[in-house]
Write a structure and sequence with these properties.
With about 45 residues, the chain is mainly α. The protein has one domain. It is built from two helices and no strands.
Length: about 45
């Protein structure tokens, strides 16, 4: 992945997070954050 692709993906993710925040009150972002924290907890436990 080169820098242009990484910047484009980062901008797209940021834009989608902002749209979710305005349209849905951040519900999808909160859901993804919870799932990510569960994954981190799982990896830390089995490390």
């Amino acid at each position: 992945m080169n820098n242009a692709v990484a910047l484009g993906l980062g901008a797209l993710i940021l834009l989608l997070a902002l749209v979710d925040g305005f349209a849905n009150g951040g519900g999808a972002l909160l859901f993804l954050a919870q799932k990510f924290l569960i994954l981190v907890d799982y990896v830390a436990f089995w490390r």
